[in-house]
Predict the 3D structure of the following.
Amino acid sequence: MVDYKSLGLVNTREMFKRAINGGYAIPAFNFNNMEQLQAIIKASSELKSPVILQVSKGARNYANQTLLRYMAQGAVEYAKELGCNHPEICLHLDHGDSFEICKSCVDFGFSSVMIDGSSLPYDENVALTRKVVEYAHQFDVTVEGELGVLAGVEDEVQAEESHYTKPEEVIDFVTKTGVDSLAISIGTSHGAYKFKPEQCTRDPKTGVLVPPPLAFDVLDAIMEKLPGFPIVLHGSSSVPQEYVKIINENGGKLPDAVGIPEEQLRKASKSAVCKINIDSDSRLAFTAAVRKVFAEKPGEFDPRKYCGPARDLMTELYKHKIVDVLGSDNKLANLE
Ligand SMILES: [Zn+2]
């Protein structure tokens, strides 16, 4: 058993409370490798932002769960080295799909876990989530549950009205399970292709797809049922068109990639939405930087010469998200 507190990590409870009261959201960035982690910690430390490091199933398969946990422990020390004396870093399991995986993360030093039972029948989702909460809370590890189904990797089907979180279920779910936060579906989606072209309109000037707006009416109805309760948005990359352009101009092929407009996420950040998950945007930044180096210097074969620029571009992206989208800069409890 590893106690996350001994690693210098924190759970989400205090950070969410302050985020709701302060009208901002905590960034939840996925990481799979050293460069991504360095960029996340550099951006959040320099801007004095709390941060959630997310580990998905794909990341565990790619980088190994043990190594990722030690990297997160190293991240705390790295943040201090960067001059952030009191970092607030949460290590969170993204989309845990069984009690066993959640338990192994709790036992191994994660400070927060998500149990995603959203594809199960409602009662089974409640029972599974309850079981994870009962285990995790013994060790003061916070738990995120999910109601409603997002399009993308969670489901083949695009989010329609029926897949949105049903506001009438949220009180029952939160009461029965005891979760600390709730991921909802209001039209965000996983991946870099969040919407089919026929769901969007097209900007006549740029030719870029304009996605349908998020269902703020559903969010409002949920907040009315659960005043002050922490809400989480998954699938909230914006797919910056400048990165898509660099990728496509340098041998890539990402036609009609489209995400959630940042103004809508900014608006959501000011509500009870206190955790916003961003993954695809950093993948796009990494790929754009690497493609550019390869196109300009075909003779380059030192990974530091293309992973370095990728890290710099990701750092820039994370800083932009923290300041302009989430508003979480200078929000550490202790800014000294
Ligand atoms: Zn997700």
Notes: Residues 303-326 form the longest helix (24 residues). The mean pLDDT is 93. Residues 95, 190, 234-235, 277 surround zinc ion (CB under 6 Å).
